[in-house]
Each structure stands twice: as C-alpha cells, then as structure tokens.
Amino acid sequence: YLFFILNLLCFLLGWNFLDEAGRAWIAKAFYIWCNVYSFFVVSIFWVAMINFFQSHEAKKYFGFISAGGSLGAFTGASIARYYSTEVCGTASMSDWGPFSLIIVSIVALSIAIILSLGFKPTTTNHPNNKEETEEKLGGTWMDPFRSVFSAPSVKNLTLYIILWTFVMTVSWMVALDIIQNWSSDPCERTAFFARIEQIITPLTLICQFFITAFILRKIGVAAVLIAYGFILFAGLVAYATFPVFTTVLVVVCILRVFEYGFNKPARETIFTVLK
C-alpha cells in the first residue's frame, strides 16, 4: 500500500508540473495503472479472507464481507460527485481538474494501512490435529505456474478470469467512448460515473446482504459464473444497438451489481477450495 501511495504522489506531481502533452501521457499511464492497482489491491484483500474461511463458510459470509467494499465504493462515489459538482471547475481547482481526487485516495490508503496493522492472519482455520497445524507447505515459486497447466480446476479458473478481464475491458472502452462523445467536460463525466456508483452501491448491498448467500448455496457457483458471460454479451449488443449515455448507465449498473453482488463472491468461493 505504501508503494501505491508513492505511485499516486508521482502522478500528482507529474500532473502539476508537466505541460499539456505531458499530462496526456500521465492520463494514459494512470488509466493503465489504475486497472492494475484495482486488481492487485482487491486480490490482496481476498487472499487474506480466503485464508480465514473454509468453502462452506465463504458461501455464508463472503457476501457480507463484500458489502463492506460496497459501502466504501458508495463513500468514494459520494466524495467524487460532490467534488465534480461543487469544486471541479472552480477558479482554484480548474487547473488540476478531477486529478486532485488523488489526494483523497492517498488519505484513504493511509487509513487502510493503519487499520490493517491489527489484522492478524491465522495459520489454519479448523485444524483437525496437531500434525495438520504444524504441516509445512513445500514447493517452489514455480509451482503456481505449473498448476495452471497441470490442475484442471486452476487451469479452467485462470482461463475464465482471462476471458472475463478481456471482455470487461472491451466493454469498458466502448462505454468510455460513448461517454466521451456525450460530453467533453471532465467534471461532468466524473459526476456521471459517480452517480452510477451511487446507484450501484445500494443495489449491490441488497444483493450481498439478502440474496448472494442463497444464490450460491441453492443455484451454485457454476451457474453464476456462466450467467455473467451471457450478461456481458447482452451488454455489448446493447452498446452496438443504442450507443447513448442512457445505455451506458443501465448496462454498467447491471454489470457492476452482478459482478460485486454475485460473480466476485462466487469466484472467491472457488479459491477457498484451491488453497
């Protein structure tokens, strides 16, 4: 987390001191960095959670744990929307634009570091005997790469994540192109996406608190993962048929609610079996 805070400081300084051409490269680099950061930070959190819960516990609790992330998303979206409507574009902030929200991100990451100091991972969840508790893990750093090709479950999950990431990236790039054609004002675009997050969060919380556990137990993880592919395909068809900002609003809301409410808890449940 400290490493990412340093990254954010570099982006902030670069945006403040570079000319327009330099800022264009900063913006492109930040987009790529932001996607890598999102995957990395979320993965680190879920790795910790996976080590705390067995598979049957994950199906019961991961929806509620995901709800905490949804509350954080709603808070961040509210801050971004207030900034984009009340602060962005004013005389004092017009030069920095939405990029100054990085300061908020740095503060939030610093708080996360402080809170994580009291988070102590356990050596095992429910040891059956002393030997199981004291058992040491063997192997080398290459074993995870070998398991991608040797273990069918790991290979299938890896392929699923690659395909999911590819299709989601294509969908997101199409959505961004539609929004850029709709408005050239960065403050207005920031407010639009912040509003989407404010819509997504309460819907996701309802799913995580009341529906996710039931779906995972009764319908199954495989059905959730397969359904997401059909939803992504329908979203791309909608973009091609009706390339307007209203379509982006509806499609992004559906995709994100399903992702955070069902698909992510389903994927993480699989990892509890693979650990």
UniProtKB/TrEMBL annotation:
InterPro entries: MFS_trans_sf. Signal peptide: none annotated. The chain crosses the membrane at residues 30-49, 61-84, 96-119, 157-179, 199-216, 228-258. Coiled coil: none annotated. The keyword Transmembrane applies. Keywords: Membrane, Transmembrane, Transmembrane helix. This is ADP,ATP carrier protein. It comes from marine metagenome.
